[in-house]
Design a protein that fits this description.
The chain has 77 residues and is mostly helical. It is 36% helix and 0% strand.
Length: 77
């Protein structure tokens, strides 16, 4: 049993079932409120890939703009 947010191992025997690391609540009787393996779901992985790709493209764009503006840079005269 693992936390859906931070993947910390959960103890279902506590009086108030909460993740000790992030405080997210879970219900030991509801399998939808926790993970059975300490891995992110496929949608979270897809989200991470998409967001990191967008950030990388934006960073490359700004570096290219900066290179074009400095004398002697790529494409500069």
């Amino acid at each position: 049993m693992y936390c859906q947010k931070c993947y910390t191992k959960l103890d279902p025997t506590t009086e108030f079932p909460r993740c000790p690391r992030c405080g997210r609540g879970f219900d030991p009787a509801d399998p939808g409120s926790y993970l059975t393996v300490p891995l992110p779901g496929k949608w979270r992985i897809i989200l991470y890939v998409v967001v990191s790709t967008i950030i990388s493209i934006a960073a490359a764009f700004f570096v290219a703009l900066f290179q074009l503006r400095i004398p002697g840079g790529a494409g500069g005269h």
